[in-house]
Amino acid sequence: MAKKVALLQGNEACAHGALYAGCSFFGGYPITPSTEVAEVLSNELPKIGGKFIQMEDEIGAMASVIGASLTGAKALTATSGPGVSLKQELIGYACIAEVPCVIINVMRGGPSTGMPTGPGQSDVQQAKWGTHGDHATIALVPASCQEIFSETVRAFNLAEKYRMPVQVLYDEIVGHMRERIEFPEPGDLEVIDRAKPTVPPEQYKPYDTSFGDVPPLAAFGSGYRFHVTGLNKAQDGFPTTKAEYVDNEERRQIRKVEGEAARADIEKNDEYLTEDAEVLIFAYGSTSRSARYAVNELRKEGIKAGLFRPITLWPFPEKRIAALGKKVKTIIVPELNLGQMNLEVERVVKGACPVISIGRVDGEPINPGQIMAQVKEVK
Amino acid sequence: MAYDYDKYLRPGKLPHIWCPGCGHGIAMKGLIRAIDSCGLDKNNTAIVSGIGCASRLPGYVDFNTLHTAHGRAAAFATGVKMAKPEMNVIVVGGDGDGTAIGGNHFIHACRRNIDMTYVIFNNFIYGMTGGQFSPCTPTGDKASTTPYGNPDPIFDISKLAIGAGATFVARTTSFHATQIDKLIAEGIKHKGMAVIEVLDDCPTTYGRRNKFRSVVDMMKRLKEIAVPVAAASKMTAEQLKGKVLTGVLYKEEKPEYCEQYAKVIAKAQGA
Known about the structure:
The complex is a heterodimer.
Chain A: E1 5-9, H1 10-21, E2 25-28, H2 35-44, E3 51-54, H3 58-70, E4 75-79, H4 81-97, E5 101-109, E6 115-119, H5 124-129, E7 138-140, H6 145-162, E8 165-171, H7 172-176, E9 178-182, E10 227-229, H8 243-258, H9 260-266, E11 269-272, E12 279-282, H10 286-300, E13 305-310, E14 312-314, H11 318-327, E15 330-335, H12 340-349, E16 355-359, H13 368-378
Parallel strand pairs in A: 2-3, 2-4, 4-5, 5-8, 7-8, 12-13, 12-15, 15-16
Antiparallel strand pairs in A: 1-9, 5-6, 7-14, 11-13
Helix pairs in contact in A: 1-2, 1-6, 3-4, 8-9, 10-13
Chain B: H1 24-38, E1 45-49, E2 64-67, H2 73-83, E3 88-94, H3 95-101, H4 103-112, E4 117-122, H5 157-164, E5 168-173, H6 177-189, E6 194-199, H7 215-225, E7 226-228, H8 229-232, H9 237-240, E8 244-251, H10 257-268
Parallel strand pairs in B: 1-2, 1-3, 3-4, 4-6, 5-6, 7-8
Antiparallel strand pairs in B: 5-8
Helix pairs in contact in B: 1-6, 3-4, 4-5
């Protein structure tokens, strides 16, 4: 039987991806350009007995998502840069308390209110460093409507598997673009549920590392009574300021994402003509679409250009970029900000080759011509 | 006969962090007696708090407990209740946590009339952070950030809750210890948003700055300012000056939020 297809906006695809992943709770607050995610879910969630709540503000939305997740629900919120700024304290809470949830950030331009209807990729460092304290981050950056669907599913999977908040960042261009979507059948994409405890309730500790770096998480109301706090805590979940607990716990929570095996599982990239590339373009989201076009045009002219497109932005693909940096003559980083990920590429390349930023913050997309001109200039 | 609280306390988690003379212990015991008298199942009850002295309560009691972030308890609790309406959800927190940083969540939980019981420990001060003034510190009183006397007017929490749409609102004090459990129990049984304001005392950061020589002095004041609703109806405005009404201040039956959303689900599913 032919698969169901539809012409969907990126934001609509996101909502359907969430439903595919088993999302049963959405708590949000309206903000452009993310609102269609909420609108679709307000319509679809009650049909499957799920819950949609429009909270009084962004912080309340994030709080409701964490509360819902602790009852066992797969919970989602969708917002934009200023909304993420407000949610940051609680994103940190979800990190330290290790509560699975997904945060969609449809990025607009500028600090503060910026350009509500204009595209931006200006929250890519906010995703990593926005909340306070040391913590690991998982952030995904899909570049098409189909990919928004599948990466939203993967975001839920990673949130459940690693017991933490996962952010999906895409810019307004992809969020409001309409493309043909092929709906996967149940089973086509993997759907992961969080590990539940198998020990008797009286033995359960919510941060028991004898089960590995990601301890099983019970649901409120399931017979396992436990304590959750944003304070540094011991394995039983109760607050502690004992140096060895605090240090071990913080390091474990970073290791569970940035350890070698976890990175191999979480990192996902798309490489296009990088094998023999002399000039590498590092681009993500809508910008990567212009970059791919530019690579094709440059190849026609005999210029060996290649594209590295991270789909997982955080943790950053450090090893691969460092290796490519040693192989190519130059790396060019076009992005809809003034060089945020350029900094990260520079950091891991460590001077092995020049890294050049193409930044744009005027509300217009980076077009292939801009990238081609830059490549020709450095070649 | 002494009441056995052990059934509801977590082994090994006491002593609590509250200062000698703090009213929070009295309020916690009232809460436990209320939960017991309502026969709530521990597995099916969540206690949620924000930040501050009162917000440490969930650590001591054996339920599904959630100690959240500054002011956000009602919003976390809304997520818990919405996702699992069969759970009994109780929120505990202080006056600063609930009505300053958490004011927005508090009033909107009231507006929704979501079925939770919010016990607000009003000790007129930010205790844990060292005695800064809260929206409930009486005008003119001293706090660590009002060394010349507090210039701010105060919130009347119970009136705020009624105005925002809570359908059960009651007030008592830590002096009136036996009334605490009765009012909380009534709030738990009420379908909808129940707010129980417990005026209590903070000898460490409020009392000592405001000429209460002892905890007993503070308790005496709570006793003196409290006027039961029935008695107040026979008093003149002059007699009621400086007093606070206690007992059930407001009660009405109105559609509850989760039940309303259940209707949305039924409609979406074609009922």
